[in-house]
């Protein structure tokens, strides 16, 4: 049976394609984003309160390397096969080397609905994997020079709204622990799925607006936006198995590796690489990769993870 939150996404997509007047207030969309980021951070922090942090450092290094590899692969494909300009290839590669909070949230919900456990440090992986791709994308475009405003770019990448909310929620969850979080659990934990459903309704509306741009960009964008997530998922599964993660953890890491950023990276790329056309990246990420991942990708990655863990075992 298809998940109810995905039905909300399809509802928004259909309403947008049919030119409905349905539109959520901008302030509500912003509020839903804040809620989801804080809720995910709290949940991850609650899990971290029960384990030591030092043993996680090798895992964090591994997922950073995973993000860097994905960025470089995407750049090479876009520039040498897709014949993109260096600016567009660098910017779009950064999108695909980074990760999507909404896709992660859908993946978490998918596993929770099926009572499949996963490691609490996955939220840290989410926060850590947002940043490296941004820096690599800038280096691919600019190289390393004295003119690069590394301070401003690092501030934008490390202290952007998404990363700040995730890390802040995680710290509060870690500091408070399960008992301390109990008073706010009805709001941030019990309502998570309902808020995610409303968020995906708006995402469906946004995706519907990218369809015209996709038609203009042709077959390469469509192929890249599907094949790149599949490649990312395979690499994510391999990394998760090497790290010794559970089936749920491997599925979530594959989902992260297959996802692409549409919030933090576009905002940073506009500052760092103004020559790049943001419409191309957003059309691929939002028009193809995001719906592909939540409709087909996550169940597929879980099946692949089950198979490869069985082979590795």
From TrEMBL:
Pfam family, one: Sbt_1
Source organism, top-level taxon: Bacteria
Transmembrane segments: 60-81, 93-112, 124-145, 157-176, 188-207, 219-243, 249-267, 279-301
Official protein name in the record: Sodium-dependent bicarbonate transport family permease
Keyword Nucleus in record: no
Keyword terms: Membrane, Transmembrane, Transmembrane helix
Protein's UniProt keywords contain tRNA-binding: no
């Amino acid at each position: 049976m298809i998940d109810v939150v995905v039905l909300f996404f399809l509802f928004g997509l259909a309403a947008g394609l049919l030119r409905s007047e349905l539109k959520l207030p901008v302030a509500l969309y912003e509020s839903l984003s804040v809620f989801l980021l804080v809720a995910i951070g709290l949940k991850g922090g609650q899990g971290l309160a029960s384990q030591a942090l030092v043993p996680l450092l090798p895992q964090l290094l591994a997922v950073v390397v995973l993000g860097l590899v994905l960025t470089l692969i995407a750049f090479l494909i876009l520039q040498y096969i897709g014949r993109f300009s260096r600016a567009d290839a660098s910017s779009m590669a950064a999108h695909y080397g980074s990760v999507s909070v909404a896709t992660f949230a859908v993946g978490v919900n998918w596993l929770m609905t099926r009572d499949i456990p996963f490691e609490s440090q996955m939220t840290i992986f989410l926060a850590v994997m947002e940043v490296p791709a941004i820096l690599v994308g800038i280096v691919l475009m600019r190289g390393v020079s004295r003119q690069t405003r590394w301070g401003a770019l690092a501030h934008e990448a490390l202290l952007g709204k998404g990363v700040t909310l995730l890390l802040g929620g995680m710290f509060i969850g870690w500091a408070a622990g399960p008992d301390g979080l109990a008073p706010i659990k009805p709001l941030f934990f019990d309502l998570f799925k309902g808020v995610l459903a409303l968020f995906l309704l708006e995402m469906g509306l946004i995706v519907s607006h990218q369809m015209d741009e996709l038609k203009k960009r042709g077959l390469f964008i469509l192929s890249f936006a599907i094949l790149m997530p599949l490649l990312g998922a395979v690499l994510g599964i391999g990394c998760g198995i090497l790290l010794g993660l559970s089936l749920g953890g491997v599925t979530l890491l594959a989902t992260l590796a297959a996802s692409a950023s549409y919030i933090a990276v576009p905002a940073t790329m506009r500052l760092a690489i103004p020559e790049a056309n943001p419409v191309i990246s957003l059309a691929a990420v939002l028009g193809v990769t995001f719906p592909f991942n939540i409709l087909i990708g996550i169940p597929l990655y879980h099946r692949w993870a089950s198979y490869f863990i069985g082979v590795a075992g």
